[in-house]
Each structure stands twice: as C-alpha cells, then as structure tokens.
Please model this.
Amino acid sequence: MKESLGLEGKAAIVTGGGAAGDGIGNGRAAAIMLARAGARVLVVDRFLDLAENTVGMIEAEGGEAVAHQADLGHEDECQGMVAAAMERFGRLDVLDNNVGISSKGSVVEEGREAWEQVMRVNVESVFLASKYAVPAMIESGDGGAIVNIASTAAIRPRGMTAYSTSKGAMMSLTRAMAVDHGADGIRVNCILPGAIHTPRLFHRGMTDEARERRRKASLLGIEGEGWDVGRTVLYLCSEWARYVTGQCLVVDGGMNLTTRPRGSGVEERRGGALA
Ligand SMILES: NC(=O)c1ccc[n+]([C@@H]2O[C@H](COP(=O)([O-])OP(=O)(O)OC[C@H]3O[C@@H](n4cnc5c(N)ncnc54)[C@H](O)[C@@H]3O)[C@@H](O)[C@H]2O)c1
Model:
C-alpha cells in the first residue's frame, strides 16, 4: 500500500528556486521534490533563466511548474510572486523561503550597506513573502506550510557576521509565525543546513581542498547536497509533519557537534592562547 504525502494538487512557491547550470541548489532540489510529490510549483528567482532551468527539469519528469522572475528584496515583487501563484494555480499551500545571500566580515569590516542588503534579502524577504502568502493560504482553505531556510551559521557562526545574524533572526521569525498562525492551520518550520555543496559554492571557485575539509567536518564524513535540504523541505511541507511546527531542524551531518578545527584563525589572532 502506498502512503500519500498529501501534496497532490497543492500549490507551492519556492524562492531562489534557480541554480546555475544543471547543478542542484537547495531551492531547486526542494522544487523538484515538491513536484515529484504532486504539487504545482512556482519557481521564483532573480534570474528568470535559472528558474526556467528548474522548471525544465520538473517538466522533463512530468511535473508541473512555472518560472517567475522576482527580486525578493522588494515588497512589490514579494506581493507579485504570491499573486502570480494564486492566478496560475488558484490556491497556495506551501512557501519555501529559500532565498539567501552571504556576507563576509566582522562588524568592524562589514559596510552598513552590505549589512542592510543581507538583512533585506535574508530576513525582510521572509517577512514580506509570508505577509502576502499567509492570507492566500487562508483563502485556499486547507491551512499551509512555510519553511524558512536558515543556516547552521545562526548557531555556530564562522565569521560571516551579517549572514549569521540574519539566519538567527529567521529562527525567531519562524517561531513567532508558528505561534501567530497555528490557529489558521499554517505550520511554520525552519531548516539549518550545514556545509551543502551547491552551485553557488563551486561557482565562487571553491577549491578541492576546501570541499574536502567541508566533507570531513561532518560526523558522518559525507558531503551535504541540495537534495538533503530538498527532502527535508518536502517532509516539513507534507502530511507526515502535520504535528510539527515552530521547529528549527539542523541538516548538517552532525557538524555542529564538532569543535572548531585548529588553524581557523582564532588562535593565531589571540597569540595562540586558545586551547
Ligand atoms: N550552500 C550552503 O552550504 C548553504 C548552507 C546553509 C544555508 N544555505 C542557505 O540555503 C539557501 C539556498 O542556498 P544555495 O547555496 O542553494 O543557493 P544560491 O545561493 O545559489 O541561491 C539560490 C538562488 O537564489 C537566487 N537569489 C538570490 N538573491 C535573490 C533575490 N533577491 N531574489 C530572488 N532570487 C534570488 C539566486 O539567483 C539563485 O539562483 C540560502 O538561503 C542559503 O543561505 C546554504
């Protein structure tokens, strides 16, 4: 006997659902997994061609998806994205808030503009997308599921201060939204991915050595893939998670339980004083 995930005929939005080439990012994997479970998916990206690549992959498997271009750092584009899903599918059941951009330095090094941009894209986009998605879910009549893609950087920062802070805010936003919208039948959860090998990393020129270091950093000694995040999104959006809300689930092969590797810079800056 087959068990249903309860997503047949449902409608989903995946933000940042594109990825370079035929590589698998966290959003692309989630879009494909949701479509495989029978959901119709609006794949949203700043770059239409990247969203279209994802749609092509879904259609090649017989799934239904539509590409939508939006820069989610702007309120009107968040609103337009939800309107596009309602217009195309006539309902909205799932929102995967996957868009995220990175940052580099400490509070001393980071410029104010860069800080504001990270907060706008990583936190405000979740606020704005949800602001318009929640009423659409309520109107659709079957509750809904929202998943926010944070990062283990929220609980184990690695020197990307604006990024880490934005991802921590997403955890709090997740809990607040879960409290506010539980009575509407809307579940809100958060995923904290660890070192996931996605196209953005290999396009930024990650070396083989760095990739190997990331692989070894997990307790399991395996490399995280977009599929690991995509499958977790699918679970959290499915009927199987009907009693799960307000949770922040770490998907990192146990990396957050390990100690900081030596040579990461801290002991040198403190004159080797750290054990
Ligand atoms: N890759 C990792 O190791 C890792 C680890 C932890 C968390 N994450 C999080 O997972 C999410 C996805 O990361 P990824 O590495 O899979 O993909 P990614 O960085 O390549 O981003 C996916 C897509 O988002 C789009 N995008 C960026 N800014 C946008 C905007 N303002 N509006 C619309 N689209 C926009 C990009 O064009 C891209 O196609 C991010 O939130 C990231 O912070 C990634």
Remarks:
- The first helix runs from residue 26 to 36.
- Residues 270-275 have pLDDT under 50 and may be disordered.
- The two ends are 56 Å apart (CA to CA).
